[in-house]
Amino acid sequence: MSVVGHQEYAAGGPTVRRMQLGARLRRLREAKGISREDAGWTIRASESKISRMELGRVGFKERDVDDLLTLYGVADHMERGELITLARETNQPGWWHPYGDLLPTWFQYYLDLESAASLIRTYEIQFVPGLLQTEEYARAVIDIGFSESGLREVDRRVELRMARKRVLDRAGAPRVWAVIDEAVLCRPIGGARVLRGQIEALAEVSEQPGVRLQVVRFRSGGHAAAGGAFSILRFPEQELPDVVYLEHLTSALYLDKREEVDRYAAAVGRLFIEADPPDRTRDVLHRALRDLRR
Length: 294
Description:
The protein is an alpha/beta fold. It folds into two domains: 14-89, 434 Repressor (Amino-terminal Domain), CATH 1.10.260.40; 97-293, 2-Layer Sandwich (Endonuclease, Chain A). It has helices spanning 14-32, 36-42, 47-54, 62-71, 77-89, 105-116, 135-145, 151-164, 192-205, 258-274, 281-293, and strands at residues 119-124, 175-181, 211-216, 230-234, 243-247, 252-255.
């Protein structure tokens, strides 16, 4: 059993709570016509600190939030209480906290976003998407990246990846629309037996109502996302923008500017058209299984 045990997989974490609170505070400030500089003066901070707070990129002190609400003229006790509670929640550990020693900060940020998303659109060119990996396949992938780590560390990383999948089992789970390159079905990560088990699992999960899986076939030639893998996360809260996630070997990029997100959204939209339609996915997977058995 995972170290997370029976802990509830909450819909979101401290990162998303900071984004929500920051967006609320920004709207309140703008409604009163107060500058970031004046808001910063009130809490003994700089204009740039207010900007980072409103973007959800720093933590919140309850006293600072209380002072800002007073400055913004928020007198309603229920509204103040709700926002102070939100500030308190921004300092609580995420569900992944037991694995924090394994996780760089940039990936902790992603796990919070993933657990709060209502829609995850993703394209993968080399591996099966993490949320759809079997335990054996995940172990093989992790062995590639952490071949010098000890067995206990590898075990814990596998536990973490399996714990991530719980997001798909909870009430209000995000919808996942995944496109994978056909090469993923041919690359024997972990050996032919492990790959067969993974493809069989993909065939099963592709039938779930919350998961849509498509394959970009070799015959399609070049396609809209030739630059590499990426994910786009959408959230149920209207004040939160879509976020594009681009992972590199030792870091990641998070894009939330409208023009950047729109370009990736257009690319994934073209991928949905260029890939085989979802109702043919099982046929593609079964064909890949037959090829592996030869």
